[in-house]
């Protein structure tokens, strides 16, 4: 206990400071839980102690859940049930304590660390702190009593939203729903606020252990939730119906079952693959790291890139000819960083080329028009020094074609960011044949500095993500043309595991952009020999001509109000086609995505299947709990997958060349050697 939890006293209040000396953050694992249980026993036996505060010794961080790499070891232990039961006993003993216990959150408290706080009488936090139980996003449920203890603070309906959805809340949101008792006025007074609260609660009636037991309505969406989300709800309902011990027993059962389940394996795979990609990016190049970044274009993408770069400490100069867009970009940066002085990096806007001669790298992010990009890239090369990296942000234009405007093409490449840049973690690096190895290494390192996960892709129509995404969107429209109602198409995609359906996605992007990029730059070039792209294009153009341009125009596949809220679907479909939905729509939505990803491997668009998985999940919404299109195939086996595809049209859903080869020799995508793309 002395190593992990340090004890201080403040006039009868015990302050237990959790501080694992061997880790940068507190990770709730076996040793910490045992130390905490001993700390509780000592506290209960101490007659001088009238209350306790649980705090963290890590600046800006309360703690996280168990190490994901340790959990498979836990799953193999014969005493896993007994281990979880001991932890549950410690948490319920804490919740039943006759003396008040207050958790003081000085930074993020997620997973197991937040479960520790949920055993307390009350919780206080520093403003802006994030709290939650995001385990379902990892294919698990809380295993430290969280499915039951959450109901001590919030309603069963709110507990369901947090547990099933894995919601992470800011402290201000948590205060509104009663999860927190108070916010500190500053980080400095957090412990004082917590000790005062503990002292004021001494002698008061303890918080009930059972919490809210209001029955939940029947879950109509249970079939679409996935194993972890269904399990979280099952544990919650077990506690509501049968009481605390019944709920904890169900939590243990589900948690142990999920530890060996496919969703957790998929989450571990993605974590490992993403970590390897980020590690490679940190290796960088022989050139100095980028400290000053120029961005050209203050639209959605350019302003987002500039804001993120500033928030990460880079000096930024942002150029645009429209001063109103520059002002909006500066406001966006201020919102992200907390004000004009919220970042260590400088932030300058200009309508000229002032400051670009000091930039280590420049990212062009103007409209997706080749002639305009040629003009801007020529201006960049005149403004920057010979050592500057030059990149274009494009989702589908040929980087090789754009390189023709460069006097020094060796330092030029594509960097495809995703919107909104502040939230989307992926960037595609697109090298053309003249890109130098050092330029690609510098771009990897820059992506890492910006907090992004970079994958390297070949310069081909749509690269990887835009190509696969276009195929998925096209399948949604194909289903409409075959007579399937709009809402049913999107529901089929959700049934397959996608967070949103293709028709809602088209509305969100705007039909004109989809026609220009997904259809014109990708589908027309790559899919015309397999699909009737012309019919899809004619149909979408007719929608636009009828005023259905998408969400921004308040009418697309759905109607929208002035605030952009989605209403009823429109009456769109192919003339003369009866509204009889085709069979296997969810399967088609899934295999449209899968087969195009596998074809990208055959075409050497990506370097390794692991990067294809990461790109699909982080960039274009492939279901995280399926682990990516290549892991999905590996987890089922090539033979099983090919058998499942036999009822699909092989022209529309070609399995590619690699999958049959894997079936023949019993291999997996993950075992394949790397392609060398781009260079």
From TrEMBL:
It holds the Pfam family 3HCDH. It catalyses: a (3S)-3-hydroxyacyl-CoA + NAD(+) = a 3-oxoacyl-CoA + NADH + H(+). Pathway: Lipid metabolism; fatty acid beta-oxidation. Residues 462-560 form the 3-hydroxyacyl-CoA dehydrogenase C-terminal domain. CDD domains: crotonase-like. Signal peptide: none annotated. Transmembrane segments: none annotated. Keywords: Fatty acid metabolism, Lipid degradation, Lipid metabolism, Lyase, Multifunctional enzyme, NAD, Oxidoreductase. SUPFAM superfamilies: 6-phosphogluconate dehydrogenase C-terminal domain-like, ClpP/crotonase, NAD(P)-binding Rossmann-fold domains. Residues 653-679 are annotated as: Disordered. Residues 293-459 form the 3-hydroxyacyl-CoA dehydrogenase NAD binding domain. It comes from the Bacteria. In the central section; belongs to the 3-hydroxyacyl-CoA dehydrogenase family. PANTHER family: TRIFUNCTIONAL ENZYME SUBUNIT ALPHA, TRIFUNCTIONAL ENZYME SUBUNIT ALPHA, MITOCHONDRIAL. This is 3-hydroxyacyl-CoA dehydrogenase NAD-binding domain-containing protein. It comes from Actinomadura rugatobispora.
């Amino acid at each position: 206990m002395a190593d992990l939890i340090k004890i201080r006293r403040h006039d009868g209040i015990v302050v237990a400071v959790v501080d694992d000396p061997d880790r940068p953050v507190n990770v709730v694992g076996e040793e910490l839980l045992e130390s905490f249980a001993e700390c509780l026993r000592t506290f209960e036996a101490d007659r001088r102690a009238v209350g306790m505060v649980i705090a963290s010794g890590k600046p800006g961080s309360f703690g996280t859940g168990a190490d994901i790499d340790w959990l498979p070891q836990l799953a193999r232990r014969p005493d896993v049930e007994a281990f979880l039961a001991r932890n549950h006993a410690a948490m319920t003993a804490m919740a039943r304590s006759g003396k008040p216990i207050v958790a003081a959150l000085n930074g993020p408290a997620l997973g197991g660390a937040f479960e520790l706080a949920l055993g307390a009488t009350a919780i206080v936090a520093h403003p802006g702190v994030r709290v939650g139980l995001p385990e379902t996003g990892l294919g698990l449920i809380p295993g430290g009593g969280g499915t039951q203890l959450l109901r001590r603070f919030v309603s069963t309906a709110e507990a369901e939203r947090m547990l099933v959805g894995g919601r992470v809340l800011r402290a201000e949101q948590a205060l509104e729903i009663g999860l927190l008792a108070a916010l500190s006025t500053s980080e400095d007074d957090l412990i004082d606020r917590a000790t005062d609260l503990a002292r004021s609660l001494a002698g008061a009636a303890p918080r009930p252990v059972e919490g809210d037991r209001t029955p939940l309505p029947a879950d109509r969406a249970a079939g679409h939730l996935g194993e972890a989300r269904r399990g979280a709800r099952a544990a919650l309902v077990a506690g509501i119906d049968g009481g605390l011990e019944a709920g904890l027993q169900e939590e243990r059962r589900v948690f142990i079952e999920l530890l060996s389940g496919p969703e957790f394996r998929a989450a571990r795979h993605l974590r490992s693959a993403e970590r390897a990609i980020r590690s490679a990016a940190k290796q960088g190049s022989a050139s100095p790291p980028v400290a000053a970044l120029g961005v050209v274009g203050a639209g959605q993408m350019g302003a987002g890139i500039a804001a993120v770069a500033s928030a990460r400490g880079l000096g930024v100069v942002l150029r645009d000819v429209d001063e109103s867009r520059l002002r909006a970009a500066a406001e966006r940066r201020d919102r992200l960083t907390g004000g004009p002085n919220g970042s260590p990096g400088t932030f300058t806007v200009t309508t000229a080329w002032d400051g670009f001669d000091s930039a280590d790298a420049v990212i062009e992010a103007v409209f997706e028009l080749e002639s305009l990009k040629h003009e801007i890239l020529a201006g960049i090369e005149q403004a920057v020094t010979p050592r500057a990296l030059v990149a274009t942000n494009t989702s589908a234009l040929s980087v090789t074609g754009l390189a023709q405007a460069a006097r020094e093409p060796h330092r030029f490449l594509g960097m495809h960011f995703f919107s909104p840049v502040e939230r989307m973690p992926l960037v595609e690096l697109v090298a053309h044949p003249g890109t130098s190895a050092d330029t690609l290494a510098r771009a990897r390192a820059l992506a890492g500095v910006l907090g992004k996960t970079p994958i390297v892709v070949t310069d081909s129509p749509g690269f990887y993500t835009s190509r696969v995404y276009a195929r998925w969107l096209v399948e949604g429209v194909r289903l409409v043309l075959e007579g399937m109602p709009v809402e049913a198409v999107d529901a089929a995609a959700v049934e397959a595991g996608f967070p949103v359906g293709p028709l809602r996605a088209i509305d969100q992007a705007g039909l004109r952009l989809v026609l220009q990029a997904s259809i014109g730059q990708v589908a027309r070039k790559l899919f015309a020999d397999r699909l009737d792209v012309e019919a899809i294009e004619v149909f979408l153009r007719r929608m636009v001509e009828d005023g259905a341009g998408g969400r921004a125009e308040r009418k697309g596949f759905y109607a929208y109000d002035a605030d952009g809220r989605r209403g009823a679907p429109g009456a769109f479909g192919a003339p003369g086609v009866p509204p009889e939905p085709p069979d296997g729509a969810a399967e088609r939505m899934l295999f449209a995505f899968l087969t195009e990803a596998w074809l990208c491997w055959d075409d050497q668009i990506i370097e390794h299947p692991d990067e294809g998985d990461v790109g699909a999940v982080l960039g274009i919404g492939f279901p995280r709990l399926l682990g990516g299109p290549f892991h999905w195939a590996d987890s089922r086996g090539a033979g099983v997958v090919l058998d499942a595809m036999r009822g699909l049209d092989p022209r529309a859903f070609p399995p590619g060349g690699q999958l049959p080869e894997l079936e023949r020799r019993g291999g997996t995508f993950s075992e394949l050697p790397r392609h060398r793309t781009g260079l």
